[in-house]
């Protein structure tokens, strides 16, 4: 069971949910309500993923279903690289919908495997361990992915600003102001720079955020693939068929 709990802990390291909402707002310029609506197809994708997984699980068993869906989960992170600042809105909506379906689907056979390995009468303990691993993984995953995202954004933004000959420290302050919702005119007046420069920094920030999302997806895929192998080994050791 320890290997399975480790898989539960590591899968959230490939979580893109929070960063998807950031992308909709700061890259595609959606407001809060529009972002919520754009995320709705991903919620539908999660439901579809759960329904499909149930059917496959009944026919193919836990080892096959879990292994295939964890691989599929890692693969669905690759299309995130297709998202760019000039992408039509349907691209991220479709990509995050596929991601949601695979993410939800992969969690079901993992949970089933953990519960099925529990000795008779200790199902409650197994459920508690699974929940604890999931919560811990979610917390550590946020820390990990946030660090990856922040590093990528900062590196990309500084590289672009340096290439354009802009003052790094001031430009970073302007970029933070853009994230906080300040208008170009307000930032122009506050830092005594042309509005066009503020808009350029805003464009650079959008590119940097996309670069950050790409790196988070890439590292998540690298983590998810070994999880598929670990899951397969764990369930075969427990004597599962399928």
Q: Any overview of this molecule?
A:
By secondary structure, this protein is an all-alpha fold. The chain is 81% helix and 0% strand. The longest helix is centred in the last third of the chain and has 43 residues, at 195-237. The mean pLDDT is 83.
What would you say about this model in short?
The chain is 81% helix and 0% strand.
CATH architecture: Up-down Bundle
Estimate the strand proportion: under 5%
CATH topology: Growth Hormone, Chain: A
The overall average pLDDT, rounded, is 83
The total of helices stands at: 9
Report the count of strand segments.
Answer: 0
Name of the level-1 CATH class? Mainly Alpha
Q: What are the secondary-structure elements, in order, as H or E?
A: HHHHHHHHH
**What's the overall geometry?**
elongated
Mind telling me the CATH superfamily name? MFS general substrate transporter like domains
Q: What's the alpha carbon Rg, rounded to whole Å?
A: 21 Å
Which residues sit in consecutive blocks of at least 5 with pLDDT less than 50? none
What is the end-to-end distance?
18 Å
Largest sheet: none
